[in-house]
Design goal:
Structural class: mainly beta
Helix content: 10-25%
Largest sheet: 5 strands, antiparallel
Strand content: 35-45%
Shape: globular
Order of helices and strands: HHEEEEE
Length: 97
Amino acid sequence: MILAFLTSFKTSSKFTSESVSIGMTKDQVISKFGKPYKSAFTENKETKEMEESLFYKENFNLGNSSITNILHFKGGKLVALEQGKESENNSTTIVTH
């Protein structure tokens, strides 16, 4: 029973190259992984192009560690997946819930 309890905790991310593909739409990602805990819009200072990011947090190893998965979209299509801690940058960001 203890072994079943311990093996029920996640040790790897659900956001892998097998589950996420460049080119997926925002709707496909939300359909597959659910609503993100937050989203943000960032303007590229050079091109003035808007980028949308969806943020998903995952907890691992009995809740002792977590990772944030940040999925970046341009033109409604997934262009990048970033995993790690959220960082502050110098771009303009509008956060939505």
